[in-house]
Amino acid sequence: MRPTAKTLALLAVLLVALVLVLDLWWAGPPNPYSAPPALAIGSGAAPSGAHCSAGAGR
């Protein structure tokens, strides 16, 4: 017995929903006050954590 396209689509949506719920449960709700600025052009906020930001302060 082969699953139909609707069944596979439903399983894919449920899998994505499960991953989102588990991620929210594991990490907790996001804190918008501790988030980095979405667009920090010219704000003086230095990037950190990535290999491409090593020379940002030069």
What does this protein look like?
With 58 residues, the chain is mainly α. It has one helix at 5-27. The chain is elongated. The chain starts with a helix and ends in a 31-residue tail after the last helix.
Summarize the structure.
The chain is an all-alpha fold and 58 residues long. 40% of the residues lie in helices and 0% in strands. It is elongated.
Keywords:
58 residues
Strand segment tally: 0
Span between termini: 63 Å
> Unreliable runs, pLDDT <50, ≥5 residues?
none
Order of helices and strands: H
Strand content: under 5%
**SS content category:** mainly alpha
Overall 3D shape: elongated
Task: List the total number of helices.
Answer: 1
Mean pLDDT, nearest integer?
A: 80
What proportion of the residues is helical, as a percent range?
25-40%
Multimeric state of these chains?
Answer: single chain
